[in-house]
Design a protein that fits this description.
This protein is an alpha/beta fold. It is built from 12 helices and 9 strands. Strands 1, 2, 3, 4, 5, 6, 7, 8 and 9 form a 9-stranded mixed β-sheet that branches.
Length: 297
């Protein structure tokens, strides 16, 4: 995370928020905020940082959620709503008045929270491979994973009053996340990078505590169905057909709940994985250029 910087914002009594902006902010361009998936970091969007056509079109600002990357706060407890507030404060601190927001998996429900909290500042949202429900039986019936079961083992393993200075997530955890996110057939370089990154970011007692709270947030989050009525901005939901975490069938139902969005569309990407911007960057980037170009003001 050599390119990651931090900025101080006031929420929760003070947060040091980690972010990446691959090029200096240009106020003449629209801005796209990027929100990463569970226990990854802003490095999830390396393919986007390297696409000159994309970065010539818009500013990219990746902000690492509470419990992720270089983001730190003294409060051991936090929720996805806290991350949404933090992201809006990061935008303000960096002089970004308005933005589009893209989020992968858990980042998808951050995009909605940001649009609800600051409708005057969020110009459009792009959820990727996500669900806007809680971890419900409804989603499981539609082919989504059992998030409760997937998170409970790590939460139990990471919950202790003992000091854990030698803690790091084990290789089984890292490979499970990589398999469901990037795909079991992802390249060795991708796998090696993320095993090293996940283990390095969650070292020691502080790392264990942050990983534990991130997992609790994922397992126990509130659903957003009743609030989607209040989203007034355009929505472009991108979803890979090979997503093994959240299903296309669920996305097809939930996109219809944005009844007050001027344009809510679901775009499926053939063979796309859960971490769609990494598995199919060209499809995602081209869709972004079209969507942002259409709705920038």
């Amino acid at each position: 995370m050599a390119n990651t910087k931090t900025v101080q914002v006031p929420h929760l009594g003070g947060i040091e928020a980690g972010y990446q902006m691959p090029y200096p902010y240009d106020a003449s361009k629209p801005t796209l905020v990027l929100v990463n998936s569970f226990t990854t970091s802003s490095e999830l969007y390396r393919e986007q940082y390297g696409n000159k056509k994309l970065t010539d079109t818009m500013n990219l600002l990746a902000i690492e959620l509470l419990g992720h990357g270089k983001t730190r706060t003294k409060s051991e407890n936090f929720t996805y709503w806290d991350t949404a507030i933090m992201n809006l404060q990061v935008m303000e601190a960096l002089g970004v008045k308005k933005a589009f927001v893209l989020g992968t998996s858990q980042g998808g429900w951050i995009t909605v929270r940001m649009a609800l909290l600051a409708p005057d500042r969020i110009q459009g949202i792009i959820p990727l491979g996500t669900s806007l429900d809680y971890e419900s039986e409804r989603t499981r019936q539609l082919g989504c994973w059992d998030g409760h079961a997937a998170c409970t083992g790590p939460i139990n393993a990471w919950t202790t009053t003992d000091s854990t200075p030698d803690f790091e997530p084990d290789s089984d955890y890292c490979n499970f996340l990589i398999d469901i996110g990037f795909g079991k057939d992802c390249g060795k370089d991708v796998r090696d990078f993320w095993v090293k990154t996940i283990k390095g970011n969650y070292k020691g007692d502080d790392g264990r505590r942050r990983a534990r709270m991130a997992a609790i947030n994922l397992r126990e989050r509130d659903g957003l169905h009743g609030r989607l009525f209040d989203v007034k901005c355009p929505v472009m939901w991108l979803h890979g057909t090979n997503d093994v975490v959240y299903s296309v069938a669920n996305a097809e139902q939930e996109i219809k709940m944005f009844v007050n969005s001027p344009d809510a569309q679901l775009v499926t990407v053939k063979d796309g994985a859960h971490f769609l911007s990494a598995s199919h960057p060209a499809d995602v980037d081209n869709a972004l250029i079209g969507f942002v170009g259409k709705y920038k003001q």
